[in-house]
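User: Thanks for the earlier help. One more: Putative glutamine amidotransferase. Can you show the sequence and predicted structure together?

Assistant: Of course, both are below.
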Amino acid sequence: MRTTNAQRFRHRPVIGIIACGRMVEGEPAQAVKHRYLEAVEKHADAVPLIVPSNQDVGRAAELVSRLDAVMLTGSNSNIAPHHYGSTRVGQAPIDDGRDGFSQALVHAAITAAKPVFGICRGLQEINVALGGTLRDLRESDQGDAHHAPAGASLEEMFGFGHEIAVNAGGMLRRIVDGDRVDVNSVHFQAIDRLAEGLVVNATGPNGVIEAISANHTPAPVFAVQWHPEWRPEERAHDLAFWHYLSEAARARYMPAPGSELSA
């Protein structure tokens, strides 16, 4: 069958993926792990575009204007507590540049009615950007329930997980099959106070919030605490995350049941 020009040049949404600050060969660099880029390209059928986080926050709106959606990835760095009004000393590693610019991206995307999706650190960044706070699970001896032991291999780290309870009526329940699913768990920070305007979609051990959404924004704001980019072919609910991102980036927004946008 011959491929037509329309098929060959069909529009694929552009997803801006925030980068992390890293030291490479002794100098500052920006980095995104391939698995995020590959998941966007393969499972969301979109074009991944790396967004550097070493930008002035005043440029966030200009960057967002060129994107169809924003993706905030996971990272090994922790969000510095001063960003959510805490006087605690954050545990290294810290990526202060990403902390500040991610907040600007969230606000710029919501203002521009562009979808915002978050994974792990990205969920935490969305909560902080909208006025919520975080806690470090290691300070209450709950870290072992949500992260593999130190020294674990990459396979062991992402093989570590637990079951989560999916709340009825939330966006996550609309895109996954079942009210309980098994997810990987690779984090130490977690939501403490949920930001106003966000809704809990799922919870895990120790009451940790595992998924959130906003149902009064002009475009979707949705995030999960686990890592759906890690071999999503093996789990239907992780594929559902990427399919939802794909739909949202194509402006087929499904507001949560009961929200003012679904009335």
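User: Great, one quick takeaway?

Assistant: Residues 73 and 119 are 5 Å apart (CA to CA).
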